Amino acid sequence: MLAYPVVLSQLGHIMVSVFDTLMVGQLGTLPLAAASLGNSIFVVMMMFGIGVSMSITPLIATADGRRNPTRISLLLLTGLVSNVLLGVLLMVAGYLLAPGLSLLNQPEAVVELATPYLRILFFSMVPLMLFQAFRQFTEGLSQTKQAMYISVFANSINIALNYVLIYGRLGFPALGLVGAGWATLISRILMALLMGGYVLYGRRFAIYRHYLRLRHLSLIHMYRMLQLGLPISVQMLFEVGAFSFSAIMIGWIGAQELAAHQIAINVASVSYMMAGGIAAAATIRVGNQKGLGNLRAMQAAGFSSFLMAVLFMIGSALLMIIFNRLIPMLYIDDVEVIGIASQLLIIAALFQISDGVQVVGLGALRGLEDVRIPSLVSLIAYWIIGLPLGYVLCFKLGVGAIGIWAGLLIGLTVAALLLFWRFRKLSLKLIKK
What we know:
Blueprint: H1 3-25, H2 29-53, H3 56-65, H4 69-97, H5 108-123, H6 125-140, H7 145-167, H8 177-201, H9 219-251, H10 255-292, H11 295-322, H12 326-331, H13 335-350, H14 352-367, H15 372-396, H16 401-432
Helix pairs in contact: 1-2, 1-7, 1-8, 1-10, 2-4, 2-5, 2-6, 2-9, 2-10, 3-4, 3-6, 3-10, 4-5, 4-6, 4-9, 5-8, 6-8, 7-8, 9-10, 9-15, 9-16, 10-11, 10-13, 10-14, 11-13, 11-14, 11-16, 13-16, 14-16, 15-16
């Protein structure tokens, strides 16, 4: 019951990217490749920010389990200030670094299209981080449905704006890929406004608004949030950064391979984000039961989440295998791109279970406030094992883009096994104590 609204909310997040990709794909191979390049850079910065915001949920879930509304109120204030400051920092850094795309040895025409698109995406970082602060706060209190409704509504607005701005409808000029960027920015501003209004004016949260004054800002709470959030961000950087760097490596092969990668990663990210909803529920339940002292229920919540993820991802894998040829056709009509993407989707299907287990493992361990070792696991699995192996398969053995994805498959499997073992070990240790 906790997971399904988060799943739909996460789906709303990723569907912005899905519809951007679907609609941009109709413009041709180069704009689709540019979207892949721009998104691969933006998502690294975005996930770093989201990682910091994720520290809010387990802290609030634990405080809620201990019936401590004062601490919850102070955590809300700290989360809002921290997220806005970080959002501004990431926006400025991303905007200034966008011209550096030319240094990544990508096709020149792709870089030219991607740079203005990426800069607009970075403007959306501040409203996105503000939305995340309110969302993680409500999820920590086991209130997950409102973020779902807002995400679905904002995604609908984004689709409509894509149609108007990309193709030039209702009297607007046809902006192409840049139009997709503006649509994303506007929809994220709307998300932040609606989620903020729900928390700041809703009766349900009145008890938590007593300390929403800057004079109550606690550096101790901010330090604790960053202490928990930065390792989560580092872990997410290692994971998402590996996929982003894989896009850069595929860009060294050519624009068609990069466009195919964008299609396959776009589809795989849908199931990943939905499994991320189960992971968020695991964080909430594990943290809440830990705060209440119900340690066996805490362990059961974690194991139940693993089982849910495995069952869900088996279904996702079957769909990718059955429709591996049809799905790319929805994005583009380039026969070569469709052929490459259909092969990549088979590999994506093979790593579905590993992807689901590792993301739920991360969520369950966050509920235990265990974030440093998972970061080390991600470093080893993706950057020491997965990416080097993918590079060798692609460029030394001549396997091509499939080799890079095979490396990712092995990295995800290593991460899944280690994170499951880690949760089992820590939960048993707490029960024995």
